[in-house]
Amino acid sequence: MPTLDSILANADIHTLFQPIMDAHQHTVLGHEALSRGPEHSPYHSAAALFNLAKTCQRSVELEQLCLELAISQFMALQLEGRLFVNLSAAAVLALDVSKLVSQLAYQGLASERLVIELTEQYQNDVESLRSVAASLREAGIALALDDLGAAFSGLRRWLDLTPEFIKLDRYFIQSLHEDPVRRLFVASLLELANQLNTAFIVEGVETLQEWHALQQLGIRYYQGYLLGRPQPVPAPVAWPPILATGTGHEQQTPMRELVHPMPTLTPERPCQEVFELFHQDEQLHCLPVITPQGKAIGIIRRNRLLAHFAERFGHSLYAKRPVRSLMDHQPIQVDAGLDVLQVSQHLIEHNSDEMDAWFIICEEGRYLGMGSVRELMRRLTHYQLQMARHANPLTLLPGNVPIQQALERAIAMQERFHLAYCDLNFFKPYNDVYGYDRGDQLITLVATLLRKHLGQRHNFIGHLGGDDFILLLRHPGWEQHIVAMQAELRQVRQHYYRDEDWRACGIQSLDRDGQPRFFPLLELAIGLVGWQPGCGVTATQLSEQLTQAKKAAKQLSGEDYWLETGGRVAC
Question: Is there a domain that residue 386 lies in?
Answer without folding.
Answer: no
